[in-house]
Structure formats: C-alpha cells, structure tokens
Amino acid sequence: MNTETIRSRDNALLKQLRRLANDPAAGRELGLVWLEGEHLCRALLARGQLPTVLLRAESAPHWDTAWSLPPSVRRVALADSLLAGVSGLGSSAPVGFLWPLPAAAACQPGRPTVLLDRLQDPGNVGSILRSAAALGIEQVLALKGTAALWAPKVLRAGMGAHFGLRLVEGLHPDDLAGLDLPLLATSSHQGQWLHQAALPWPCAWLFGHEGQGVSPALLAAASHTLRIAQPGGEESLNVAAAAAICLHASAVQRLG
Amino acid sequence: MNTETIRSRDNALLKQLRRLANDPAAGRELGLVWLEGEHLCRALLARGQLPTVLLRAESAPHWDTAWSLPPSVRRVALADSLLAGVSGLGSSAPVGFLWPLPAAAACQPGRPTVLLDRLQDPGNVGSILRSAAALGIEQVLALKGTAALWAPKVLRAGMGAHFGLRLVEGLHPDDLAGLDLPLLATSSHQGQWLHQAALPWPCAWLFGHEGQGVSPALLAAASHTLRIAQPGGEESLNVAAAAAICLHASAVQRLG
C-alpha cells in the first residue's frame, strides 16, 4: 500500500479539494463529493460504498489502515496546514474521502417524499435530510434555487443521511407532474391542525424558502394544508424544526 | 434629531460593535446586545423595549425615522464598509440596535422550561429558543458549557424568541435543585415512545451536547425518558429537530 504525500499548495488534487470545499456547486461540476471527518466516512462505508481517495493529515498515519480499505483506494497524506485549508471542521477531522457523486437520479413516483422549494440555508437543508432519513422518507426533491444538496455544509448537517436517500436536484415545478402523491404543505395561519389531521401515506411534504415560504403556485397544488399549533403566540418556527414536527407526525400516524 | 456619522475604524463605539460581532462572550462582558437586521429590531420593539442606539448604514438614512423612536435614542450612521465589517448578514441588513443586556435572571420554579446541557452549535441553540417560544415554553436554562445565548449567531437563529423568554445561563447542575419540575429527557435507544407517553405539564425538557448527548448525572435525574420513533432506521436526529418534535408533542397534548 502506497501513500502519496502532498506538500505543495499547487498540487492538482489539492486544487480540486479547495474548489469542493469552497464552492457549493463544484461537486456537481467535478462529479466528486468531499466527505470530511470520521462520521461521514464511516456512514459511506456502512452503505457498502467505497471512496476513490482517502485523504488524511500527514500527522495521522493511522487512518491509512483504520478501515481495511482495498488497495485500489488511493491513499494521500496532506501536510496538516494544507488539510486545514480545505476543512470546515478544523483539526478535529484529519481524515476525509473523495467519492464519485452518484449520477443524477430521477424522481420515483409514489414513494415517500420531501420536496424543497428554494431553501437557502445549508444547515436547514442538511437537517431536513437527516430528519427525512430518520423518519422514513425515501427521496428528497429539490427545486431549482435550493442550496446544492452535496455542498460541504449540507453534507455536514446531514450526518450521512445523503447516502440513504434518493436525491434529485435542480427540478422545475413541471417535473413534479408524474409524482403521483398527495402534496402536503404547512401554513402558519390556515389549514387543518397537524395534530388532528389524518395524514395520507405515502405523501410528499413540501417545505419552502426561509423568508417567503412555499411559492403560491405550489401551495395551490397542495392537497392538504396543515397548521402547526403554536400556543406560545405569534412566533414562527424554523423550517427545519417545522419539517421535523411534520415528518414525525407522518411517521407516528402510520406506526399507529 | 441628530445623527452622528462614524467613518473612522478607530471609533470607540465601532470597536465595541466589533467585539460584540466577533466574540460570543462580549455581550455579557459589555452588558450590551447587538441586534442586527430589521426583523430582530422589530421584534424588540414589539415587546415594548427600546434600544439605546440605532445604527444604520450611511447610505440608508430612512432608518432614522422608520420606527418613530423617541429622541432619546442615539442615532448613528456608519460608513457602509464599516457596517459590513460588523455584520453577519451582509448588505441585506443596513440597520441594527444596541440594547442593554437584561440583568441575569433567576430560575423560576414550576414554569415550563427547556434545559440546555452544553449545546455547542449557536444555530441549534437559536433554533431551540425559537421553537421553545413558539410552543409555550417560558424559560430556557443553559448549563455552563452551552453556547452564549446572546451571541449574534444565536440571536439570528432565534429570530426574536430571546425577547419572549426568561433566559438564564452559566448554570451548574446544583442550581437546578429548586426547579420543582419533572425532568424529561430523550434517548435514541430506550424509554417510552414519545407519541404514546402521557407527558406532564409543566415540565423541563432536557437537551444535550450534539455529540455526547445529556450528561449521565442529569440523565439519571430525569423522571421520564422518551424515545422518538425513527422508522427510517438507525439514523439520528439533529438536537434542534428532536427538540421541536418533543416541544410540539408537549404542546398538543395539553391542547387536547
């Protein structure tokens, strides 16, 4: 097993990494995902997937053998200062994988779905992916204008949920025509109370832009509008918090 | 009404702002909160509170008169580039308030409570404050080691929830002795299913460190351990997502 060592800022692989770390759209362009930190790497392996490159800090050689990866996986040691430059986690995560981004999937009709309408915040998007995976959703569809699903911050907040979900992004509302699912939206001021409603399953839960909410056209297409009880008054919920509440309500209703 | 204009990087007020923007602990030290952006400013005024200073971009003079503040409020225009330097929101928020940090409150026994045990991420803390305020919690108690509640990132994620809650921070577990509330904790692998449990009210919901969870001593003191159903498999939930689910469950159970 050979380990290459990179100590030059101008190395081609390092340049790729830098783009992946800094540009949310680079993953799709390069066809690569930068999975940083032990947790994400372990989550990938748990799905039976292999990286193409194992990258670790020069000072942390034990990672070369930590997971019994086959010899076909390229091992690269990066000078610690260079790794810090492509890290969103800092020194706590001296290891990461490069993994080929899965080919763009197609929407699957009739499967439990979350639909994201122009969500901006990568932390919110990642948290919703994580809740979706935990609560029995199979696919997440992101309309054009939503944060890039494979961006490092979304991956970090997703904590491995990406690997268990069918992810489709860059969609236009017209692409949803064949989805064949009741569309559930939340509203802060109208609709049936979520905790009293009979929720269809499978369904597609719709979550919208942090400031503007779901677009009026999509809202009009919803078969159910649900309202989350907020006895604390006029305050609103963060969209990822609202999503967790809705997805949990769906989950426990079908558990009976 | 007079407006001062600041164009020097060395201005004393600007130096204070810079500390408040960059050091999460500065708020408590200076006894000041930096509320950035229209939404937070409006939320403060909605509670009948007044700022001591209105700060706005030099290019946005309409903010001087936007809220009919009394003349006693000091008006300061900051050169746009200087305001950008103390902004977490960028050019989208050319206005903010300086507001005197409320004196440290004492725990109130018997009131609906959220208890934070060493939560690290300011976004999570802010999101939980927001859910707490919306879902009928009255006070949030933060144990030593939790992110500073009045830090800019927590304020931003809280979206005004801070002004509707009794906030107590820097607590030691011993300080909870007189709380006189059943303590509810979540667990990923044991306890009663949340959606089947009879939940006491008022109560104190306990949420712990993102990686380590609630400390064993506190967990042992909990009167109820609840488990959130996760039919998606072994994935876990983000702590703010779990908090939203638990607080919503409490809220709808007492709504009946």
From TrEMBL, chains A, B:
GO terms for molecular function: RNA binding; RNA methyltransferase activity. InterPro entries: Alpha/beta_knot_MTases, Ribosomal_eL30-like_sf, rRNA_Methyltransferase, SpoU_MeTrfase, tRNA_m1G_MTases_N. Residues 113-248 form the tRNA/rRNA methyltransferase SpoU type domain. Keywords: Methyltransferase, Transferase. The keyword Methyltransferase applies. One of its GO terms (biological process) is RNA processing. Gene3D superfamilies: 3.30.1330.30, 3.40.1280.10. This is rRNA methylase.
